[in-house]
Structures are given as C-alpha cells and as structure tokens.
Design brief:
single chain; alpha+beta; 9 helices; eight-stranded antiparallel β-sheet
Amino acid sequence: MNIIKKIVFFIFFLCLNSCNSEIERKDYYLQGVVFGTTYSITYLNATKNYQQSIDSLFLEINKSMSTYIPTSDISKINNGNTSIVVDQYFKEVFEKSKKIHQETKGFFDPTIGNLVNAYGFGPEKRKIILSDSIINELMKDVGFEKVSLINGKIEKDNPTVYLDFNSIAKGYAVDVVARFFDSKNIKNYLIEIGGEITAKGLKPENKPWVIKIVDPLNSVSEDGFRNIELTNVSMATSGNYRKFRIADDGKKYVHIINPKTGLATESNLLSSSVFTKTDCADADAYATAFMAMDFEKAKKFLEENDHIKVIFIYLDENQETQVYDTFLSK
C-alpha cells in the first residue's frame, strides 16, 4: 500500500511540475543601458527571465574589449601589456575584423583607435586640434596588418598601435545573446543593441518583427525613414547623423573615420543599413566600412559581393536624397 501511495504521489508531483512549467511560460521584454548605448530584447514563450545571464554576458564582453574600461584586456594591450592572453570573445572579433578588413581592402580597420581618440570620440573627450602633420603621424599606426594574434596574444609592429573594436562589438554582443537564446531553445526573439539587430522567428500573432530605419536628415523623428519586416536576419545601421563633434573653428567631424585618409569628414552616403543571414557582427562591420567609402565605392563593392544586402540613403550630384535598395527589392 505504501508503495502504491508513493507511486501516485510521484505521478501527481510530475503532473504538478509539468502544469507549473506551462503556466510559467510567457513573453519577456528586457531593456537597459550597455556599451554606452541602450538595448531592447524581446523573447517569447520562455520559462525564465534571463536578465541576470545576459548582464553577465555583457560584463564579460566589456572586460574583454571595452576601451572605456582601463582594466579591460584591450585597454591593457593598448597600454603596452604584452602578456595578456585574450579570451574567445576577443579572438573571434579579431578574426572577423581581419577577414572584413581584407574584403573591404582596408575600409574597415580597428587600428584607427588613435585617430578616434584624437578626434574626441574615444574614452577621453578632448579638444580637436588636428593639423595635417598630426594626422599623418597618427596614420603611421593605422593598418590591421600591423597586428597579429599569435598563441593567444596580440603582437604589434608598433607598440603605439591602438585597437578599437567599437565598430563591430555591438553587433557581436547581439550575436552572443542570440547564441545564448538558441542554447535555451528559444525560437522567437528580437535583440537590439544600439541599433544593431538580430530577428529570429516571429513576434506574437505569428507576424514578422517590424523595425524602423532612421531618417538621417531628421533623426529625431519617430516616424523614421521606412518600416521594414525582419525574420531570421541580422541588421546593422551606421550613419553620421547623431554622433559628430563641432570644433572651435566650426568644422564638423563625424565619428566614422576613413582609415585610408585619417579624415573624419562626411561622404555622400548618409546612412548604411546592412542585412545578413550570418552574424550581426558582420553586418555591423560592413555598415561601418560602407560609411567610410563614398556611395559609388560601396555600390561597386556590393556588385561584387551580392550576398550582402543593403538599404543606402545617399545624396546625388544635385544634393537630393536617394535610396539604393538591394534588400526589399530582392
């Protein structure tokens, strides 16, 4: 009799747990601040709030690659510490950066860190006083071929080379969170960090996720330039419409610096939105590279690499806004 009671109780316990699991499944919406920007994460039909786990992932990425944290690995490497053995995050971003640097013939280059700092877009805000001679001197440290990853350590041709992965790190962080969700068998989610996005599956009511592309000529407008639907795709947008500085002489400097010239001036490409079926880090890096090119160079690159889809907003020869779209028109 006791055995029968125990079996009945065990079955009841299993049923109760199963019912509770079903009851606890719900949709989660997480928001916060990280990497100097905001994030918004939605995931559906899950049994747990993963805020703490996601915060831990962000912390690990910051400890690895944040130039704003003096004790991070990248800060120590930039300050001349040659004993740092980098983690898997750093290694993956380094290898991705090398690949895209080669593909874009140097228009994507994380060794522009000294120029980023000199223009006042780095950890230390400073006055912009850049002569041609200063830019030429700083350009001596630019070139991703000047750094290598050997046995887990960064080796530089010049000790003064300064690495800055900020133009790929947000997209990479999106990928890290997406992989975490995949490991938890979460099928439907939208991850956005500072405008870099991965959308998987569908949102409630089995509809595609909808996002807005910012209007670069009116970035404060909530209407945006265009609404687009995303399903199982990564997206990154780069533009100079929000992050720029005005020097004492009234000259405007944008945060995307041309690695070929060392100049921080606007091109005729106002906004670059890149869509990939691969990682968001790839989209992030390509979007930055295209902004460093002018529209014609970026268009030529895409004609030779048609697996990358884009929506460009640019100015034509009459200074009128035009759209070049290979994503929605595919």
